[in-house]
Amino acid sequence: MRFRNLILTVAVAAALAGCTNETLDSVNLSSVKNKTEYQLSGKMVSKMRELGMQKTSPILLRIFKEEGTLEVWKANTANRFQLLKSYKICAWSGKLGPKVKEGDRQAPEGFYPLYPRQLNPNSSYYLAINTGYPNTYDKANGRTGTHLMIHGACSSSGCYSMTDEQIIEIFALARDAFKGGQESVQLQAFPFRMTAENMARHRDNPNIDFWKMLNVGYDQFEVTKRPPAVNVCERKYVFNQQSEGQFNATAQCPPMSTPPALQMAMASYDKDFRRDYEKALKKYQGMVWYEPTEAERKAVVADQRKGRELAYAPTGSSLDAGKLLKVSELEKKIAEQKEAEEAKQAALIQKEALEKAAREGKGLPVPQANPLERSVEQAAVQPEPASKSLWGLFSRNEPNASPVAPTAASPAPQAPPQPAANGQQEVPPAQDKPQVAAAPAANAQAQAAEQPAVDQAPIDQPKKRPFWKIWGN
């Protein structure tokens, strides 16, 4: 246990030796008179001196989305870069993976040269450095987007947002490096630290092929501690390649070769990487890394926003909000997220429809009563017809008599068959439905001819007819 604690203490000390904790020398903005001419603190200058760095020596920026970190590396007198300071990114939007198109809320990933003209002292977000997205690689692959920055204000929609105290220091470091003659500052933006274990953990991510390409440049910087020379051909990045031909982003790559010294340096590193990768694959067998959403990252750091202005919106790190899951668990979680998103979209569509109706002055639809229930209610209160005698059923002159539909009445009796001329009994011909319906009509005409009109007969004394008259002609 003591040995383990000793190792941990040494590791922490080494980490602190390589960077300065931002909370120890945070900038007091209230004392800053000119933000573009802000001079680095005495602690920062002393740290540079201890690491053998000049104030105006070149710098390099590295970003790691997953842990939400921006690193500033600076060249020492041997022209090798060392980590000067690590900053916690306040907000970055989207998920791991490169920016592809305008409006996707993704922050860029890749290698970007930053020139003096990309420093913006008049930004709406205090200060800003334009990342230069889309770069040559992005354009060759049809990626779109504008105004992707590293800026202050801790609010992001595709940018890497810092606090104002952080960005004024980063801005000053870049400004001094340009004053020292650095033509461009290299920005390396990665989804995560591209170690063998992390590459194995994210092996199932759809962006893994793109990340493997970035991994080459990452590894070469890890070995050489110098910014790699970056070119683009065949719509892909190539690093530290020597060629007598010209590099064209969309054309075939010219004949290339890796410097022998770099090949030797990378041989041992690559061997160790492959060994560690195979070991990590066994460790993560049957497991998948769940990449959290931006909302899930924000939920983890919600307490940081308490007592601050609404614009302060830290998004946290994916390492804190993500997790390893079994494949079945991940599939279930993704299905639940899809269902929730569909419900959210349906509610949004309904809300927009109601708002549109209100703007156009249309009344909102009011549910109506069930017509079937109203009919049943009316039928229940309708009075029952008065009972009628058997004689009244056949009387045409009885008051309030309801006509009986021919189809509902019993079939009319057939007239007795008449003997045929040959003395044989004649069978009545079969009648179809129109003939059956016509018989009562003929009887009605005969009855109307034998009796006075209805309106001439006394109402209180309807004329009675003999029973046999009903069937007679």
Overall description:
The longest helix has 33 residues, at 327-359. It is globular and about 85 Å long. Helix 6 (208-224) packs across helix 7 (260-283). It is an alpha+beta fold and 473 residues long. A hairpin with a 7-residue loop joins strand 6 and strand 7. The N and C termini lie far apart (125 Å). The protein is built from 13 helices and 14 strands. The protein has helices at residues 2-18, 42-50, 136-140, 164-179, 196-201, 208-224, 260-283, 294-300, 318-321, 327-359, 371-381, 390-393, 433-450; strands at 59-64, 69-75, 81-88, 91-92, 110-114, 119-120, 128-130, 149-151, 160-161, 185-190, 230-233, 236-239, 287-290, 323-326.
* Biggest β-sheet: strands ordered side by side in the sheet: 3-2-1-10-5
Helix percent reads 25-40%
Terminal Cα span = 125 Å
The biggest sheet amounts to: 5 strands, mixed
Task: Classify the beta-strand content into a percent band.
Answer: 5-15%
Q: Helices and strands, in N-to-C order?
A: HHEEEEEEEHEEHEHHEEHEHHEHHHH
Mean pLDDT: 80
Low-confidence stretches: 1-24, 389-410, 419-442, 452-459, 467-473
Strand runs, count: 14
Helix/strand class: alpha+beta
Which helices and strands, and how do they pair?
Blueprint: H1 2-18, H2 42-50, E1 59-64, E2 69-75, E3 81-88, E4 91-92, E5 110-114, E6 119-120, E7 128-130, H3 136-140, E8 149-151, E9 160-161, H4 164-179, E10 185-190, H5 196-201, H6 208-224, E11 230-233, E12 236-239, H7 260-283, E13 287-290, H8 294-300, H9 318-321, E14 323-326, H10 327-359, H11 371-381, H12 390-393, H13 433-450
Parallel strand pairs: 1-10, 8-9
Antiparallel strand pairs: 1-2, 2-3, 4-9, 5-10, 6-7, 7-8, 11-12, 13-14
Helix pairs in contact: 6-7
